[in-house]
Amino acid sequence: MRVARKFLVIGHVQGVGFRFFAQNAARREGLSGHVTNHPDGSVGAVAEGAAEALERFERALHQGPSRSRVERVLVDEVVPTGLHAGFEIR
């Protein structure tokens, strides 16, 4: 079953390769969607795919790359759109 989630990652997550880390994690799990920096210093992502793959992706976001410091990951369920062909950095 295809599901989708919206993530907001809060902490020291910009300037540390977090978007590339998230893109690699999503591609490894076969997810589609995107990741982007927000003006407030957080990183947002929307991902869709298999529920188990999204769980693994969420765990990766909680960990982050070695230079990051993730304080919190907010997660919202959203309706899958099927509009993304891959996982991109915006």
**Dominant shape:** globular
Give the DSSP E fraction (strand runs of 2 or more residues): 35-45%
Major sheet details: 5 strands, mixed
Number of strands: 5
CATH A-level architecture: 2-Layer Sandwich
Mean pLDDT: 96
Structural class: alpha+beta
Radius of gyration: 12 Å
What pattern of helices and strands is seen along the backbone?
A: EHEEHEE
Number of helices: 2
Number of domains: 1
Point out poorly predicted stretches.
none
Could you give a quick summary of the protein structure above?
The protein has 90 residues and is of the alpha+beta class. It has helices at residues 18-29, 51-63; strands at 2-12, 32-37, 43-50, 69-78, 87-89.
Walk me through this protein's architecture.
- This protein has a single domain (2-80), classed as Alpha-Beta Plaits, CATH 3.30.70.
- Helix content is 28%, strand content 42%.
- It has two helices and five strands; from the N terminus they run βαββαββ.
- A hairpin with a 5-residue loop joins β2 (32-37) and β3 (43-50).
- α1 (18-29) packs antiparallel against α2 (51-63).
- 32% of the residues are buried.
- The mean pLDDT is 96.
